[in-house]
């Protein structure tokens, strides 16, 4: 492709973009829109106390009618509604901005871009600090294994593990019952060596050369959360994907199984 042909194609592409998306090219500040305040501080709010809303009021200081068309933020935690009626010179309009603090602890500062007719815009901001709240364990852990044990995974996929490699993944869980859970984790029918369960000659479900390390015991009080590291080590190369069943045992009761998968290196 010659340089002249490349330049012609580039010019055509730019012209097409301008014709399709003029708002992305020619947006300018709407100086007729004067907000009483551009930044609003919600102060300190609780994470679980619900959404908070503030109304930004503006005055049309220009000679022409102003109509707001939309307001956008880059965060799904912010929702904005504009007054859509035309605002005559000297009159006022508004933008209602709602912030949702749920699962957003800490400081925040969010920009909202307000678009008006004739490809013009203005910017306003909301900020504040969110104090962490207490969420039900059922919101954090999707899978109920029974007897109050909730875990984040039904399947732990370790991906590809080549020969000689080690992979570690964390498994988080919570106790949603009123009793303390004495947890152990059984891996198929493999031979137990201390806190390590690995393959033996009588176990066909755990491939030879695959070693899984998992804590032997975990004590979890009511409402408490915990985390363990599950380690996979590959001594020899797998011929196909390995699927290993891990059975959590709480206070002597076998719970729903957790599946662990390991893929061979290509």
Automatic annotation (TrEMBL):
Superkingdom of the source species: Bacteria
Signal peptide boundaries: 1-26
Pfam families hit by this protein: DUF1573 (PF07610)
Keyword Signal: yes
Keywords linked to the UniProt accession: Signal
InterPro entries in alphabetical order: DUF1573, Ig-like_fold
Keyword Signal: yes
Name of the featured protein: DUF1573 domain-containing protein
């Amino acid at each position: 492709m010659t340089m002249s042909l490349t330049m012609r194609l580039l010019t055509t592409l730019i012209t097409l973009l301008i014709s399709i998306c003029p708002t992305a090219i020619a947006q300018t500040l709407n100086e007729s829109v004067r907000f009483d305040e551009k930044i609003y501080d919600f102060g300190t709010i609780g994470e679980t106390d619900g959404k908070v809303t503030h109304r930004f009021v503006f005055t049309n200081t220009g000679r022409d009618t102003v109509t707001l068309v939309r307001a956008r933020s880059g965060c799904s935690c912010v929702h904005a509604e504009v007054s859509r009626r035309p605002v005559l010179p000297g009159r006022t309009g508004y933008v209602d901005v709602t912030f949702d603090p749920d699962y957003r602890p800490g400081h925040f500062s969010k920009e909202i871009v307000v678009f008006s007719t004739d490809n013009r815009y203005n910017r306003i901001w909301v900020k504040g600090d969110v104090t962490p709240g207490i969420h039900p364990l059922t919101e954090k852990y999707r899978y109920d294994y029974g007897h109050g044990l909730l875990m984040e995974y039904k399947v732990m996929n370790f991906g590809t593990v080549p020969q000689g490699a080690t992979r570690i993944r964390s498994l988080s869980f919570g106790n949603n019952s009123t009793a303390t859970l004495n947890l152990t984790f059984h891996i198929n029918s493999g031979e137990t060596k201390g806190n390590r369960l690995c393959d033996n000659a009588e176990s066909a479900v755990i491939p030879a050369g695959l070693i899984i390390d998992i804590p032997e015991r975990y004590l979890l009080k009511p409402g408490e959360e915990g985390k363990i590291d599950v380690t996979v080590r590959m001594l020899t190369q797998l011929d196909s994907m390995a699927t290993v069943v891990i059975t959590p045992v709480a206070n002597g009761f076998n719970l729903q199984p957790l599946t662990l998968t390991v893929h061979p290196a290509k």
